[in-house]
Structures are given as C-alpha cells and as structure tokens.
Write a structure and sequence with these properties.
The structure is a homodimer of 207-residue chains. The first copy, chain A, has two domains: 60 residues, Orthogonal Bundle (Arc Repressor Mutant, subunit A), CATH 1.10.10; 125 residues, Tetracycline Repressor, domain 2 (Orthogonal Bundle). Helices cover 71% and strands 0% of the residues of chain A. The first copy, chain A, is built from eleven helices and no strands. In chain A, helix 1 packs antiparallel against helix 2, helix 1 packs across helix 4 and helix 5 packs antiparallel against helix 11. The interface between A and B is large, with 49 and 49 residues. Chain A binds a DNA duplex (30 and 30 nucleotides) through helix 3.
Amino acid sequence: MDTGKKPRHRPVDLVKREAILDAARDEFFTHGFAAASIETIAAVSGVSKVTIYNRFKTKETLFAAVVERQCTMMSAVFVAPDAPGTDLRQQLIAFGETMVDFLTQPHVMRFERRIGAEAELRPEVGELFLNAGPRRLRRELTALLESAVSKGTIRPCDCEMAAGHLYGLICGFDMFFARFSENGPDPHQLQQQVPDAVDRFLDAYGD
Amino acid sequence: MDTGKKPRHRPVDLVKREAILDAARDEFFTHGFAAASIETIAAVSGVSKVTIYNRFKTKETLFAAVVERQCTMMSAVFVAPDAPGTDLRQQLIAFGETMVDFLTQPHVMRFERRIGAEAELRPEVGELFLNAGPRRLRRELTALLESAVSKGTIRPCDCEMAAGHLYGLICGFDMFFARFSENGPDPHQLQQQVPDAVDRFLDAYGD
DNA sequence: TACATTATGAACGATTGCGTTCAATTATAC
DNA sequence: GTATAATTGAACGCAATCGTTCATAATGTA
C-alpha cells in the first residue's frame, strides 16, 4: 500500500537507474561478465561507484538486473500479428519480417551472443533468455500454424516441427553466419528472402 | 630443410604442447579469454607456467594457437560424402546426419558459443572460424545441390539459397535453443528429424 | 663425464578490480 | 532553516593474475 505519504528527504534519482543499467548492458555484453568493470560502468553512466553498490548489492546482482530488463524488453515484442482476414501467405510473411527485423537488431545479436557464452557457467541465465524469447516465439508461430491447419489452409502436420521448419527456412545460413562476423546480416537482404522462404514452406506444407 | 642433424641437447617435449593446448582449450572456452587463468592452464596440463610462456609469448598467442588448432580440426571434418550411385534423398540424409552428428558434439557447441562471444572484440577470430567451418559447409552443400540440378533431380534454383533452406530445415529451432541450455539438443532426436527435413526440402525443391 | 638446452618452482613487481568505509555535499520535504 | 536521506570522491584492504627473473634440476647427445 502506497499511502502517498511523501518522505521528507531527497528521493532516489530514477533516471540514474536506467543510466546505470544502460552502461552495464553495454559493458557486460561487450566484455562478458568476468571482464566487465564496475568502475567503467560507473564512469560511463556518470554515477559514483558507491551509488551502484547501494542499489545493486554485487556485480552478479547488477548483471542479473540487466539480463532481466533485456528479457522483459524482449518478451514485450512478441505480439502475434494474427490479422484475421489476410491470407496465410501474407500472415507468414508479416510474421517472418517482424521476426527478422527484431533478430537482426545489433543489440539483440549482442545479447544473444553474450547469453550463449555466459550460459556456459550460468545455466539459469540461459533459461531466462529462452523463456523470454525463443520459446515464446515458437509457441506463437506454432499456434498460428495450428490455426491454419484447422482452417485447412495447410495440411495436417506436427505444427511445432513445422514452426521450426519455417523458422529455419527464413534464417537459412544467415543468422548463423552473422553471429561470427562484425557486420551482421544485411537486414534488407534477409527481408527480401522472407517471401522465398515462405513460398518454399508452402510448397512443402501447403494443401 | 631438416638436415637430420640431431642437436646434442634435450629435445622439446611435444606431448606437453598438446597437453597445454588441451587445458587451454577447456579453460578458454569455459571462462572466456579474459577470465581464463594461465596458472590454471599450467596446473591442469601439468606444466610449469614458465614453460607455457616459453612456447607461447603471451596469453593472446596461446589463445590464437588454440583457435587455430580447433579450426584445422574442424576443416578436416568436412568431406562431402558424394557417394555417387545413391539417390539424392539418401545423399542429403547422409549429409544431414553427418552434419548433425558433428554440430551437436559438446565441445563443438562450446567452441561455437565462445567464438561468438569473443568475436565481439576480436573479429579476426570470427573470420577464422567462419572460413574453417560454416563457409566450407555451405560451399559443399551448394555444390551437392548444383550437381543435383544439373542431373535434373531437383528443379533449377539459387543453389546457395537452397543450401541455406536445407540447413535451416534440418536445424529448425533445435540448434538455436541448444545454444542456451546446458543439456544440448538430443542428438538422437535431431537425427530422427533429418529425414523429415529432407522430405520437406524435396517437397519444395523436388522436380 | 661434459655439455647444451628444456623444464621447474618460487618469488617478485605491477596492474586491475571488487567491495567497503567515511567524511563531505546535495536535494527534497516540512 | 532544518531534518533526512541520497550521492559523491577519495582512499583502503584484499585477492587475482599477467608476465618476468633466477637459480636449480632434469634430460638428452657426444
């Protein structure tokens, strides 16, 4: 219960919290947890090191906070564009384009790369990420395909597997390659490949 | 020229070099370059720290040596099983199974995860990896499909894109998910999905 | 046995970085 | 203005680690 009773003292600066988390995100994702420097984070965010330790008990806590913020940010993105009325091909293309748009963002790619590495020693971080992003994505895509099956637009199949197939067709080698090169995939080029991928998917699964 | 002239002194212990590289691989890929400890590597490989510095000038040099060894190890694997005489479906299934077999090896997955992260600060490492593995893989798969096109087994198409499609169909979500969970993909299950993926590929590209 | 080189172990200097302490300053409510 | 809490800057203890030095031991050839 927030009694609205205002304390008679200096309030915490909420802007600073975001600044800290922003700087921490960059530092952690660029150098990794171990090599990240709290002092650098303090300097970049324009905040005293003590302030950071006042708000986040340890380096681990700060890292967890960063990951959590990124995860909620991610899960907010996946809203299935189940625009009824348009045909399946258009729906799948829209879905694919949204997905590609999202996945090719530099900061998303950096997030992915870093979580993959950190999960080596911190499995719970990997789980958090999976639940916030990939599993959600698969669930929604599967639901979309199940609805298509029930409408008879595509033939009956294991829709979860089909979702994986569509995802794979869209990404091809590109997302794989992009993880290891500084200049990620050309989002524009990947966009152009989406219709092709969807058409191959419909060749394979269409009625 | 190796004149066969034997030096009259204690020779270098070649076994130790491998031991060092093995320990270094584990340490680097588990903790990342920055957090890896040379002293741990020395202890695990049963070698003095000075010996390591005698053979590898710096930590960076040692890391580079590890990456290079892993890369040559990888490039040695990709021999296209272009068994002529078998039909395309069998050929693609064999290719897929070999690929899955290789990619799901725990030490290969750890290599991938770590290179992805390190490439953030060391692009040249990412390039090395790409040339040793993924690009080679794509080249061979593309060649296989081109030969299939010329034989009329599948219809004419952009074979490099088709190769990406086949790769994507085979991996689906699984390789993606596996990067973030401690228990990787069930290689057995992935194996079973290969024929399905190949059949969907042939649905889409078959003549 | 004498020699040449590799390998070891222990210690060192220098750096970095976490997390803490403390006195001083700032911002807000009353 | 005063009380209260947030924030700062500087300094500290402590541990880890890179890379080096050096005296000593081990291992091979001649």
